[in-house]
Design a protein that fits this description.
With about 300 residues, the chain is an all-alpha fold. The chain has a domain at about 190-310: Serine Threonine Protein Phosphatase 5, Tetratricopeptide repeat. Helices cover about 75% and strands about 0% of the residues. The longest helix has about 35 residues, at about 1-35. The radius of gyration is 24 Å and the shape is flat.
Length: about 300
């Protein structure tokens, strides 16, 4: 009996060791895949070296091996995504679309990059098509572009490029996207909504934030149902120390924003309340934000600061 138990334990340990080794090899292949393709860190494009046949072959081989080793694990999405970029760089849009689709389906976490580059591939296919096929590709491109912006509404490049996807009769949509791009670009908040440490009274006035007031007004006029320009214009008012106007814009953003972004709007409005000295309202908004996004350290720090100031 002891011998059977020992044998079973040995089999388990050997299997565990093999699994750990396979995971390590999968991660190593993924790094080779990304390094060979020399992806830029912000994933906004493809570096020149991905068009090099040697780098492309190395990257494709490593990505394919990583996909095989990851099996059904969610980490494989990045290998599919990177291989899709390699296919796209050599204008093999069908294979690129297939890999971007697999990247999307491989993980429960929504990433905007596969949607965006799949949109780009559909747009390129549309430019070489005619009739119903062209119309279908344009529609697919816009659907994916819309999804990418839904996931990451903080990226100006997405709006500017979506503006180019609108066709005849959609001039107002193209103009709206151009204005949104101008609005978002003025402040250039990152996907995680910098400043991560949180704005606080006494920070230097940022000229670009002040410029957002005018740029985002135009975007609001053309995108009345969107929370994004109100949110960004609020930061412009913050830069001008116009706290009441900032509170008004952030309140509009809270009203219009989807629940997954509302925590940021509450945090921003809390900072505006703090700036005008209304600590009770600031504390309330910071707590509302933390209910929606409890792991945000900058909001926790802002709440602690407001509580200490209140005494």
């Amino acid at each position: 009996m002891r011998e059977l138990a020992a044998a079973a334990c040995l089999v388990f340990l050997v299997g565990s060791a093999e699994a750990i080794a396979q995971d390590a090899e999968a991660l190593r292949q993924l790094e080779w895949c990304k390094n060979a393709s020399r992806m830029v860190s912000d994933a906004h494009g493809i570096s020149a070296s991905t068009t090099s046949p040697g780098y492309a072959r190395m990257a494709e081989t490593a990505c394919s091996r990583a996909i095989e080793l990851f099996g059904t694990r969610q980490e494989r999405w990045e290998a599919y995504f990177t291989r899709g970029l390699i296919y796209m760089a050599r204008s093999d849009h069908e294979l690129a679309i297939a890999d971007f689709s697999k990247a999307i389906d491989s993980t429960l976490i929504e990433n905007w990059q596969p949607y965006w580059w799949r949109a780009f591939c559909h747009s390129m296919k549309a430019s070489f098509s005619t009739g119903d096929e062209q119309a279908t590709e344009k529609q697919l491109a816009l659907m994916d572009a819309n999804k990418a912006i839904e996931i990451n509404p903080m990226e100006a490049m997405l709006y500017r490029n979506r503006a180019l996807m609108h066709g005849p009769g959609q001039e107002s949509l193209a103009a709206s996207d151009r204005e949104m791009g101008e609005c978002v670009q003025t402040i250039n908040l990152s996907y995680e909504l910098l400043p991560q440490k949180g704005w606080k009274p006494g920070d230097p006035v940022d000229r670009l934030r002040s410029e957002a007031v005018g740029a985002c007004k135009n975007a609001m006029d053309l995108n009345g149902a969107s929370w994004v320009p109100a949110f960004f214009r609020g930061w412009g008012h913050m830069g001008q120390r116009q706290y009441d106007l900032a509170v008004s814009d952030y309140s509009k953003a809270i009203e219009l924003s989807p629940v997954n972004w509302r925590a940021y709007a509450y945090k921003a409005r809390g900072l505006a309340h703090e700036g005008k000295g209304d600590l009770e309202a600031a504390i309330s908004d910071f707590r509302q934000s933390l209910e929606l996004r409890p792991y945000d350290d900058s909001t926790k720090a802002a709440l602690d600061r407001a509580l200490r100031a209140k005494g």
